[in-house]
């Protein structure tokens, strides 16, 4: 070890000892486990979203969404999969609620498909009562089983018509159209739904939908598209919050929040000021982009500075980051009754200058590089490394930046790649849940105001551009079988124990959970191994038998013709 490195380490050590404010960022304790329980009333559940799980993409009057159209284009989704049928949640929601009941969920998070309610996106055109009935039934059955619905209004499935006519979130008219949709949902479901999430992970809608084009609608408007989409989304969120506040809150007494996704960004070198600032920038460009206007009234200063400077260097007269008027700022500020947080992973961040030029994008605007530690477990999705300690840091960041808001964790979980799909003994998922939930418990002890936790996801489902190749479910879904049967993975048992103990009571008990959970999954594994046979049998009866019969009849006819010809 060089002398310079030793000095840095020593400095880091000194920092560890001296920093002792709200949360001790440098006191790593990364390996230590905290035994303890959550406050009474802490809410446990799991989630999913309409396009990812419902199927029935063209049934009962539903209109097309940008995802229906995007997924049907060749080359957009892994193996050209679509969610046309997915888990058939539209037909199987009763079975799914039985699963939730058995796990003793307090809540279930799902989203309403806008084009299932307004097939053309617009209220004046047509309201689809069959779509309303589906959500009515779902909500009623959840409540009958004492499961609180947490309902997302926009989980990425914009009505296709609005994209074709107006350019979707590039256009300011979406603000009013979305508000009409939300207002109808409040009117029809708000007597029973008390937790509303306006947008799910708008970062993805903006960046992947309008900047990189990996997601629907697939536009690649580098350097401008994401900022414009986000600007309209933030305004739409605020408008919907005000609509609820002025028209429904006093009657319905519910809460309206937004769900933001964020990875944690840790400086590569905690003694290097440039890395510290780069890591902060990473989080500000991710979560702060949306959270700062909503809590504090405007975009993070660092975004305004960086994008403004780079735009000027490009020779542009104004910043590529749109500007809120002072009226808009005060209208947007404070429009959040609770903050939903989706969190999966962490990155190490270091500073890197990207020279300004023609090739500016959201990513180069940040002037940083993301790195990972190759020792971090990486069981499924390429981007998802298990780094539990990042979760506690992110939660503490939210607490200090936004005035300790009420938080619901709206997504947290881990996937497996398709090669391991028959493995119901998901050891790594149990470990992931155990460690991440434990970090959340530590954050709670730090004073973070977390009220609930949503495991992502209840079922294996359509994973956007990755198709069905990445499975996040607590329950395995056999997509090859047209009945889409669900099988519990071991993590179901594990999560069930966390829920029934409301945390981690003591070492002896917690250590027995993994063994007990894996005992059950090996027999389910055998069940599953037998299942492809059922799908095979279905194929034999539905395709092979009729085809062979038709061939036999044809052959017999030809043979008969020959015989008859010979005779005359
Ligand atoms: C966030 C998205 O909201 C969700 O739909 C997706 O399944 C997870 N990320 C995992 O990629």
Automatic annotation (TrEMBL):
Source species of the chain: Oncorhynchus kisutch (Coho salmon)
Q: Which reaction does it catalyse?
A: Hydrolysis of terminal, non-reducing beta-D-glucosyl residues with release of beta-D-glucose; beta-D-galactosyl-(1<->1')-N-octadecanoylsphing-4-enine + H2O = N-octadecanoylsphing-4-enine + D-galactose; beta-D-glucosyl-(1<->1)-sphing-4-enine + H2O = sphing-4-enine + D-glucose; a beta-D-xylosyl-(1<->1')-N-acylsphing-4-enine + cholesterol = cholesteryl 3-beta-D-xyloside + an N-acylsphing-4-enine
Q: Please list the GO terms describing molecular function.
A: beta-glucosidase activity; galactosylceramidase activity; glucosylceramidase activity
> Catalytic positions?
411
The name of this protein is: Cytosolic beta-glucosidase
Per the UniProt entry, the signal peptide is 1-19
The biological process GO terms on file are: carbohydrate catabolic process
Pfam families from the UniProt entry = Glyco_hydro_1
> Belongs to which family?
Belongs to the glycosyl hydrolase 1 family. Klotho subfamily.
Q: What is its EC number?
A: 3.2.1.21, 3.2.1.45, 3.2.1.46
